[in-house]
Amino acid sequence: MDHPRPTTAAPAAERAFTLVELLAALGAMVVVLGAATGFLLTALLRENAVLEAERLEAMHDDLAQIMVRTVKTAAAFQIYTDKSQYHPGRSENGVRTGNFLVCVRTDADGTQTESDFELSGQGIIYTKTVAAGTATTKTYANARIPAGSVNLFNTDLGMVQAAWEVQTRQDLVPFRVCAMPLVMR
Amino acid sequence: MQWREKGFSLVEVLASVLVLASASVAITAGWRLADYKELAMRLDDRAGRLLRECYEMQTFAPAESKPFKAAGTPNNQSLVQGFLYHPRAQPSDPAQDRGTYLDVVPYTISISPDGKSMELRYELPGFGRIRQQSMRRSAGFNPQPLDP
Fold first, then answer.
1. Cα A141 vs. chain centroid, distance in angstroms?
2. Which domain holds residue B129?
3. Is residue A170 less than 8 Å (CB to CB) from chain B?
4. Does A153 score more than 80 pLDDT?
5. Per the domain annotation, does B116 fall within a domain?
6. How close does chain A come to B113, measured CA to CA in Å?
7. ipTM above 0.90?
8. Residue A111 and residue B141: Cα distance in Å, rounded?
9. pLDDT tens digit string along A98-113?
10. Cβ distance A46 to B34 under 8 Å?
11. How far is Cα A105 from Cα A107, in angstroms, rounded to an integer?
């Protein structure tokens, strides 16, 4: 008597993937996700560097504009080799080239404003003192003297000039400022 | 099988992974375009700064140090031409990275024949479908030397 042979095939709804199919799918997922994550991380790092470069350049552009405005409106100015050579209230014995610039402006109401720019390490420090009162200080980081130059400031052409470079993770941004003080025009 | 017991099929999961990966690539492409626009803006700002410096030198520097002679011909090449962008050189071997920078995006400054205005020109590099563009920035001289 013949008995019907039991079948091993499951109904379509109950079929599952084989181990090989699962492993292949898992491998594909790892490759796709890994590539996408790597791509995204690289882009994130690059984006971060771009934003930092933009921020630094904007900051130093701000400094350059302050410097031009300060020099142009100065009633008196002096350059010193460094800050230690300067004695507040006595603008004398300046030099043609140095890393410390002090500018003094007197407003119509008699208020005196002193602005100092100092190259210190890897940054430029700007200090503004109004009427010998509270001083406001701001540091502009990542600055360096360009190759071939020795100091930040000079008066070689009979006008105040400053040159520095800003190093970012993306690029090098040169800054040059030249301004003629009102009193020298 | 009850509907509550249904899960995602493997094909659905794989498809969603592909969609997520494509989305991340599209996002980074958007960022790159934003970076390009931002670089174009920075180059424009630099052009403005260079023009201001050149203007100040032309107005106040001694005759022999002015960027242009009275006839409008360049007097000091280093002041009227150079490069706007100095990206960090990236050698294929990171160990050889010596912190050097390249010079790209050349510019030239010219003065009008009547000596009343200055113009800075440079070529903005293209990006993807955006073509290279010729850019110009100009500043006019006032009877009294003031900022451009």
1. 6
2. 10-140
3. yes
4. yes
5. yes
6. 24
7. no
8. 32
9. 999 999 988 888 888 9
10. no
11. 6
Q: Does B88 sit within 8 Å of A178, measured CB to CB?
A: no
Q: Which residues of B touch A22 (CB under 8 A)?
A: 10
Q: Count how many domains chain B has.
A: 1
Per-domain boundaries in chain A: 42-184
- The answer to whether residue B145 sits within a structural domain is no
DSSP state of B131: P
pLDDT of residue A184: 74
pTM: 0.81
Residue A47 one-letter amino acid? E
Nearest to B56 among A32, A39, A179 (CB): A179
Domain for residue B130, yes or no? yes
Rounded average pLDDT per 10-residue block, chain B, 148 residues = 67 85 83 89 92 88 86 83 91 71 93 86 90 88 49
**Closest CA–CA distance from residue B39 to any residue of chain A (Å):** 9
A13 interfaces chain B, CB cutoff of 8 Å: yes
Query: Token digits for B120?
Result: 């800075």
- Kindly determine whether residue A39 and residue B62, on different chains, have CB atoms separated by under 8 Å: no
> Measured between alpha carbons, how far is B45 from A14 in angstroms, rounded to an integer?
67
